[in-house]
Amino acid sequence: MPDFSEVSLLVAFTDFDRYAAQIGQLEDMEVARVMNAYYQLAGSAIHAAGGRVVKFIGDATLAVFPPDEADRGILGLLDLKDQSDQFMRDQGWECRLVVKVHFGPVAAGQFGSGATARYDVLGKTVNVAARLEATGVALSVEAFRQLGPEARQRFKKHTPPVTYIRRQDSHRPRWAKRP
Fold first, then answer.
1. Whole-model pTM?
2. Less Cβ crowding at N or C end of the chain, within 10 Å?
């Protein structure tokens, strides 16, 4: 019997811009020292905001917050962004934290077996959070809708930029069926 279930959560995915370029200039032990200190900072901030760190992978963090902690969670992530950016400046690193948040159903619980079982969240909501376009902090519409009026004031609607495609790509191949 699986030890996981479907639940709706606020899912946050964070990572640092320019991280790969930065660590390419450093010794592994220096990277480990800085990232361990960051993990402590992020873990404390996320926990204090009512969330849970699911995992750290290199410079990335996957964290979740229950729906009733959406305002507290988002405001905590905004504070984490500011603290992390200052932390990296203090280290002399050219990295800044990128925060992406989505809300929706996930499969959450213990995955694996025996001593290797661990808490995780899986599903489309996690992928949407990880793939949001962001240079700082971005919320999906679904995440924004979880916020109360006061927390919403911290954000503005952003429309993606127009993209252009090659002219020949705009025509359907002859073999494609017309709608």
1. 0.86
2. N
